[in-house]
DNA sequence: TGCCGCCTTCCTACTAGCAGGTAGACAAAA
DNA sequence: TTTTGTCTACCTGCTAGTAGGAAGGCGGCA
């Protein structure tokens, strides 16, 4: 419970939760201002323009995600566990409603009207995630843990789509349990055992 | 090529394409006004408030979708064909960019900040679609066309998530072909033959 | 047939409030 | 003393929404 977070980090934190709730056009500087008790102008001091704020935010998110996934690869025993930890992370986020949606999945929906500097970063996150999933699946196949119908790249795309679609369904139907009900069987099917 | 569409239909058409592009907060009465060459006030004559406009729009969409799916059930020979026609519909929409996203999937992302009258209708569409998929899968099992790992309800949720997730990936990565690359194998796997 | 009043649709002109963003003053830290 | 962070006060343009009027269609009625 450190309250040592810098102002700009606090701004990004609030902005992130607001984007998760309503997307790029669903929040304003005034919303952030209200949430952390600082004037609008002070937010502009840290992030002159909204597009820039969100670009930095997505950068941070992508970096955090990449670091998290990387450490998962190093720490988790097997590729099967790595996959399991990954979806458990999201299950927890969704079930306690702390962050019930991926920032980049949210922004991807608005892709067509996003500033370029944001859109390109969202795309990058999707590529990173697909690459991570591909390499985990690949490793799992080599260790005889997974048996895939398709090439690892395609199977990774299918899995990523399942995860994002499951988030959407859970939100649309107001049923957090739906996430794991959809994604669970999807990864169970990959296992050989 | 009938230009006999009523003004309120034209308003809904434009609003729908704007929502598909940018969500609930991503369009304004002025945008519609510009697109169909009518004053803002005239739009308010047909739809006094934005929440009402979108509620009517989602109602129309849900009705059209329900009718389309119903006629698919009646016309398409087998449950396997019904599923194939369903995803072919979306593949076409996405590939020619005519409507590269489901309105309700788009709005589902913004669920948390949608007016109640809209949110409840979006939820209804998700339930309808899940029910349709469930019944098609069920029929397919009874005719020995499909073999499912899970109960039809769960498998339907998994399939729906795949479809929405695939739309999102196709959009995020700017690759229309990704939709069918993800959804194709997903339904192929259900088939017994 | 022509006139009447009503209803629908669209318009111009307007409002209050919020959006993102700026200018410049002030205090404290470096 | 310069830099950093915050403030008050402000600007412009856009937001949803309103008031009220003009044009036309339509049914009734003499």
TrEMBL record, chains A, B:
Alphabetized UniProt keyword annotations: DNA-binding, Transcription, Transcription regulation
Classification via Gene3D superfamilies: Tetracycline Repressor, domain 2
InterPro entries: Homeodomain-like_sf, HTH_TetR, Tet_transcr_reg_TetR-rel_C_sf, TetR_C
SUPFAM superfamilies: Homeodomain-like (SSF46689), Tetracyclin repressor-like, C-terminal domain (SSF48498)
GO molecular function terms attached to this record: DNA binding
Transmembrane segments: none
Domain HTH tetR-type: 5-65
Residues within the DNA-binding region(s): 28-47
One Pfam family named in its UniProt record: TetR_N
UniProt protein name: TetR family transcriptional regulator
């Amino acid at each position: 419970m450190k309250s040592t977070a810098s102002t700009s980090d606090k701004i990004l934190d609030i902005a992130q939760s607001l984007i998760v709730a309503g997307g790029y056009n669903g929040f304003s500087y005034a919303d952030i201002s209200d949430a952390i008790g600082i004037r609008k102008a002070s937010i502009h001091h840290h992030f002159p323009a909204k597009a820039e704020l969100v670009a930095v935010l997505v950068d941070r998110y992508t970096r955090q995600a990449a670091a998290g996934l990387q450490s998962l690869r190093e720490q988790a025993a097997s590729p099967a566990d790595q996959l399991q930890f990954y979806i458990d992370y999201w299950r927890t986020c969704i079930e306690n409603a702390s962050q019930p949606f991926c920032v980049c999945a949210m922004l991807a929906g608005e892709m067509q009207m996003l500033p370029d500097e944001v859109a390109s970063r969202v795309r990058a996150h999707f590529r990173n995630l697909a690459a991570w999933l591909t390499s985990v699946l690949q490793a799992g196949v080599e260790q005889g843990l997974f048996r895939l119908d398709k090439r690892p790249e395609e199977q990774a795309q299918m899995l990523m789509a399942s995860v994002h679609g499951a988030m959407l369904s859970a939100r649309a139907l107001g049923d957090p349990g739906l996430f794991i009900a959809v994604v669970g069987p999807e990864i169970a099917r990959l296992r050989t055992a």
